[in-house]
Design goal:
Blueprint (H helix, E strand, L loop, with lengths): L17 H7 L21 H12 L10 E6 L7 H17 L2 E7 H7 L10 E4 L5 H19 L6 E5 L14 E5 L7 H6 L2 E4 H10 L4
Parallel strand pairs: 1-2, 1-4, 2-3, 4-5, 5-6
Helix pairs in contact: 2-3, 2-7
């Protein structure tokens, strides 16, 4: 047994000044990259909400076991900012109810529409300026849907057209043709005669707006 007074166990270690170590090898820190800021919630839009609720509670489609095809002529939906947002919200509601949805318009209309079209934004097809250019794109898409139904042994689809243009009257040859007119005052007589049913979007908007709180 040792009696003390000799070298201690601590004498076997080499003592290091931590301040010297910190000076030689500074502490490494991983830079923190801030994450994306949370998306701002869209401002409430009573007109859009009420219009979509109406189209959900009372769908425009016929109660038939056939395909639903939506065609939207964005060039026909001109409106001020508030009504434009509400109209685009209505388009989204109708597109979610359809089996296929096709949207087209001149570049300016498509650019204005896309921020409000949710998951259908990229389906909006910009076309060159010119009379009926968007209409022909939509008609071609509807024809492809009609061929697909025929090949599947189904009856022709029901088509809901959001437009006033008479060129869409030919769609009545393949199945029920429903028209959501942006304003019946400008509705083509030819389309009026061919349609199975017609609804006035501007009239629906006015009815909905009249029930909103002041």
């Amino acid at each position: 047994m040792g009696l003390g007074g000799g070298p201690s166990e601590a004498d076997d270690y080499e003592w290091i000044d931590l301040a010297v170590l910190r000076a030689r090898w500074p502490r490494r820190t991983t830079p923190v990259t801030p994450g994306p800021a949370p998306a701002a919630k869209p401002a409430p839009d009573p007109l859009a909400d009420a219009l979509c609720a109406l189209l959900t509670d009372r769908p425009l489609w016929l109660s038939l076991p056939i395909r639903r095809v939506l065609l939207v002529d964005l060039d026909n939906l001109r409106a001020g900012p508030a009504r434009w947002r509400a109209r685009m919200a209505a388009v989204v509601t109708l597109a979610r109810q359809a089996d296929t949805a096709h949207l087209a318009g001149q570049a300016g209309a498509v650019e204005r529409a896309r921020p409000h079209l949710a998951e259908f934004a990229e389906q909006a097809i910009p076309v060159a300026d010119g009379s009926d250019v968007a209409d022909y794109v939509l008609l071609e898409a509807a024809a492809a849907d009609a061929r697909a139904a025929l090949e599947a042994g189904e009856d022709g689809p029901q088509v809901l057209v959001v437009s006033n243009d008479g060129i869409f009257a030919t769609l009545a040859e393949t199945g029920p043709l429903l028209v959501l007119s942006p304003g019946v005052d400008a509705l083509s007589d030819r389309l009026d005669d061919a349609a199975t049913d017609i609804l006035d979007l501007s009239g629906i908007e006015a009815d909905v707006a009249s029930e909103l709180p002041a």
